[in-house]
Every structure is written in structure tokens, then in C-alpha cells.
Amino acid sequence: MFETVIKVENLSKRYRLGETHRGAHSFRDRVSSLFKGGGRQEDPGSIWALKDVSFEVRRGEVLGVIGKNGAGKSTLLKILSRITTPTAGSAWIEGRVGSLLEVGTGFHPELTGRENIYLNGAILGMKRHEIRRKFDEIVAFAEIEKFLDTPVKRYSSGMYVRLAFAVAAHLEPEILLVDEVLAVGDAAFQQKCLGRIGTSSNSGKTTLLVSHNMSAINRLCQRCLWIENGSILKHGNPAEIVRDYLSRQVIRKPVVEFPLDESKKAQITRLEILDHKGTPTDKIFIQHPFTIRIHYRLYSRVIRYRVGVKIQLNDGLDVLVSTTSDVKGDLLSNGEGTYSAELSVPGNLIAQGSYQVTCFLGQPGLRVLDRHENVSHFVIQGHNRSFHEPSRGIIAAQLDWDLTQ
Amino acid sequence: MTSSRTIIKPETGWLRINLRELFEYRELIALLAWRDIMAQYKQAVFGVAWAVARPLFSVLVYTLIFGKVAKLSSSGVPYPLFTLCGLAAWSFFSTTLAQSTVSLLGNTNLITKVYFPRLAVPLASLGRGTVDLVISLLLLGIIMACYRFLPSPNALFFPLFLLTGLAITLGIGLFFSALSVRYHDLRHAIPFLNQLWFWMTPVAYGLENVPENLRFLFLLNPMTWVVQGFRWCLLGVGGMDWTGLGITAVFAVLVLLGGLFYFRRMESGFADII
């Protein structure tokens, strides 16, 4: 039960700038640089996405990995799952590794659900007889019995994700590397997936879980790594680290500006929290409505997108998720330009307490265009200004009581 | 428990190819190939009929233009047989070249999300070309029967030329698949390259129709040797001797090793730059 199954020593990864993901690579660029630079390309510099990271994981442990976007969490998982190679340092892993860096990979839209199960299983390293043995279980877990022989391009995004997780979860690796897969799918299915990770840990399986979902980290992990700027900042008890992490994340500014990045397709430029009079504030009186306004910019035409907000309690519990497509179900399509979206939150909805705001812009089922976790913060103040009174839950609705004798 | 230890460290050895691992993933290779083949015909009304119609149509055109209009020689063999035989080798090559150039880019979400031996992807892109090859050879057999044309005893050497054709095609396919990861616009150049290469290979006409002073250009092209070899084996025409066989084999080994070498060198960076 205590033997080490993953050992990472001084692992480092350097990316050359201008060569990181999706850089423009074409003959034209190369040819024009040939003429401009007299044949020599200048090294545009490099960044260490991961620097001297060392840790060990023992069998049966669930290790949480947290940190801001771009801190190096995903790079770490990519190296451990052998998708990319490290620049320096080394690591070893004992046992069969299954990685779930993003569900839905390896699906071919023209093929049916049944055909894709076999294809995806093979990609994840399963043999055909193993897949055949697990087939019914996978189908049942994904709840897609009726659509087995339908091409997956006709699946809803929910079905798609369910099928993908089901295949990966039934691979039964001895070591599971999971990156943010829990950000997709509906709440019930997320619970099912988290439950699955919990049970596999009980049966001696080791999991490395990267997540922004702090309550999941808190609940599932025995230990936690906090990575910042490519190095381990803290390592230890999840409850303590999550608390430190969240308190560090809090930015007590009701208006947050994001630097422009024209290499993106679209981005959020500004997030504002405004009180009922339209003044930026981070303190809202429980009875008053307030507004969360997101300014964003599209650098080219974007179709079928939505803007959304997530409000979380300080300890990571999701309180509210709202998007522009919730009410009528319509997604937005707009050309290049600057836009804003405003969410009105009525008074007497969210109970008093301290909350974090996450904002995102994305094309559902396709990609996240921009997302900022816990970038802003507000406090709902109750009738008595003291926080010492016992918890009043998270809903502040004023409800009627019928009193009879 | 049969647990195995995976060691992760910076990539140094360039030519180490883990054949055992590749064998472990044979089902993935087969499935990827099958996926390409199925995806091609799944929504087409005539389905597999296309795969038969395409070579037939090309043979018809070449026979009319080069056989009837230009009246080029076909070494005494009926023109349709002559060009179909060359086309069998050529279509395997050109389909695979086009297919493998887009293969890694087309599987970007796999490469950036999950580990498997990257060689599986260009290997699987041999699938569609193989279907083309088999269909062309079957058609050739049928048409040979119609003409009551008996294959020559050289046919014993056919497996050898099949193997060299495979090695050359795979080597060039590996090279282009790895190159296209760095230069995405390569896929736009492939149709032109394919066309140029086609006319630089004696497929629609015989090598003897090429002017003497240009013939060396054709002989530098490895595919010329494969096409000539196919014709020599199956139809018994065109000069092929031990020297020719040796040259073809040397080409095959050089091209395959060169392609593998380049692919392996680029491989570790695929996920970072794709």
C-alpha cells in the first residue's frame, strides 16, 4: 500500500517562444525570414513551463494538482503521459498509465458510437477482447444504448462527453492522469465521474487529478501540489493548500481588466461587478440586485458562442452558473468587434458570504475561447453585518411560512 | 501483477524504433486505417464503386489520349493493360503520399492528448493506398483475362517489387507527414507535387517514349523503377536486369531509412509544435 509508483525528479520543460502551440508555421514564413534575417533565424527566447519539479506518489493515492492557468499543470501531465518529452530531469511510472487529458479525443464523427468505442479503446491501449468484455458496461455507463449505431456527429455534446469518459474510465489503468475533464458534462454526470475516481482509489488505483474544482480536490485527494510558474509552491494537506490558494487568488477589485492578446480568436477584456446604482463595488447588500458585466472582443467572426459566469463560495462550492444561452437556448454569432454581456442577479437570491467569480467565453461542445477562474470577488452583506452568525445556507430567498396550530 | 516501468527522460537516441511497442499497437494501426477507408466511402452514394471507377476512368483517358491520339508505343502490350499496370503502383504511392501528409495534422487531437507510438499514424495511412492497389491489381487480372494475356514467369519477382514499392512509398510518406507538422501549408502543395511526380514517372506512357537526354531525370525517380518493375513482372515488358533490381533495392532501403530517420528526429516535438 505504501510503495512508490510515480517518482519525478527535477523534471523541466522548456518551450521555445514562437514555437509553442499553434504558432504560424508555413513555408512562406520560413522563406520570408530567410530573406529578412539573412538566413539565420534569431532565437526569440524561451520559457520554462516546468522547472525542477520533484515529487513522489504512492500506490492508491489521489494527488491533486492545482495552480493558475499556465502554471505548468498540464505540461506536467503531458510529460507523465508521454505526449511530450521533458527538456531535463526524469521520471518513472510503475504500471499501466491511462490519461484523460480531454475527453472526446479520437472520436471520428462519421463512425458510429459502437465503432468509436473500439477505436477509442485501441487508442487508449486496450486490446479488442478487453473492449468486448467491457463493452456493455461502457454503454450502460454512458447511457447511449439507443444511439449505438448512429454516427457520433449526430450526438448531442452531452452524449459525446459521456461516451468518451465511459471508455476512458473503463480502461482500468493502474495509474490515471486526469486533466480538467470534470469541467465538461452536466452536474449529475460529473458526480458519477468523481465517484468513479473515488472508487478506483479505494481499489488501489493511483490518480493524479488536475482541477480547478476545489471542492473536488478537497474531497478526493489525500495530498495536493500547488504549482506556480512551473515550480512547486506548496505540497501537502489538500484542505490547507486549497485555503491558501483561494485566499491568494482573491483580488479585491470589483473591476478586472485583462490584457489584449490578438493571437486569440476572442477574449474577455473586462469584468465588472456593479451595484444596483451602477457603481463598481465588491460589497453588496443582500436585498439589492446587482450586475456582473463582461466586456469582450471578437478578433474575427465567431459563431454559436456564449458568455457565462460562475459564482463559487470561497471554499470552492459552485453556487451559480449562468450563461447567455440559458433562457432561450440561443447561442450568439457575431462578427469582429467589441461587445458586452450583462447578467442581472436579483436581490435576495444569494445568501450572505464571500464569493468568487469566474467568467468564460466559449463555443459549447467545441472549445473554450477564454476563461478566467476566480478572478473577481464580492461579499454579500446580510442584515446584521457580522459574519459570526451561523451559516444561513447559500440561498437567500424570502420564503413564506404558514403557521397553524 | 504484471506492471511495467515506464521511464521518461529527454529524447536522445534518434534511430531507436520500438518494434515491439509498435506491434502491441497493431490494433490501433488497423483501426486507424479502417477509419480512413470507411470515412472515405461511408457517405458516398456509390460507395466502393468509386474505388473501381477511378482507375478504370484513368485507364480509359490514357488509352484514348496516349494510345489512340498520340499513338505512343506500349511495348507491344495492349495499351489499357500497359497503363493499368503502372497505375496500380502509382495510385498506391500517390494515395499514400496525400494521405500521410495530412495524417498527423488530421489527428492533432490524438497527438496532443494521448500517448501512442506516433509511427502508427503514417503507417495507418497506407490503408487507403492498399485498397487502391488491391482493386487495381484485381482489375488488371480481369482485363488480362479478357485479352487472354498470360503473365510472364517474371511474376515470381513480383513480391520483391511490391516490397520495394512499399518501402519507397512508406519512406516518402513518413518524410512528408513529419514535414507537414512543421509546415502546415504543405498539404496545399501536395496535389501539385503529386501531379508533377505523376508526369515524371512513366505511368501513362512508356519510358522508351521519353527523349534520351531527359531519361536520366526519370531514372533518378525511385517510382520509375517500381513502375518499370511492376510491368516487367506482370506483363513481361521493359528492360529489367540485376542492375535494375539492385538499384531499386538500394533506392528502397535509402528512402525508407531516410524517412524513418527524419520522422524519429522530429517526433518528440510533434505535440509541442503541431
Straight-line N-to-C gap of chain B:
37 Å
Subunit organisation of the chains: heterodimer
Tally the structural domains of chain A: 2
**Hey, roughly how much beta strand do the residues of chain B contain?**
under 5%
Class derived from helix and strand content of chain A: alpha/beta
CATH fold label of the largest domain in chain A: Rossmann fold
Which residues of chain B form runs of ≥5 with pLDDT under 50? none
Cα shape of chain B: globular
Described by strand count, sense and barrel closure, the largest sheet of chain B is: none
- In DSSP terms, counting alpha (H) and pi (I) runs of 4 or more, how many helices of chain B? 13
Q: Please give the number of β-strands of chain A.
A: 19
**Fraction of helical residues of chain B:** 55-70%
- CATH homologous superfamily of the largest domain in chain A - what is it? P-loop containing nucleotide triphosphate hydrolases
Stretches of chain A where pLDDT falls below 50 for ≥5 residues?
19-25, 37-42, 385-389
Characterise the protein shown here.
The complex is a heterodimer of chains A (405) and B (274). Chain A has 405 residues and is an alpha/beta fold. Helix content of chain A is 23%, strand content 36%. Chain A has eight helices and 19 strands. A six-stranded mixed β-sheet of chain A has the order 5-6-7-3-8-9, with helices on both faces. In chain A, helix 6 links the parallel strand 6 and strand 7. In chain A, helix 3 crosses helix 5 and helix 4 crosses helix 5. The N and C termini of chain A lie far apart (60 Å). Chain B has 274 residues and is mainly alpha-helical. Chain B has one domain. Helices cover 70% and strands 1% of the residues of chain B. Chain B is globular. Chain B starts with a strand and ends with a helix. At the A-B interface, helix 1, helix 2, strand 4 and helix 3 of A face strand 1, helix 2, helix 5 and helix 13 of B.
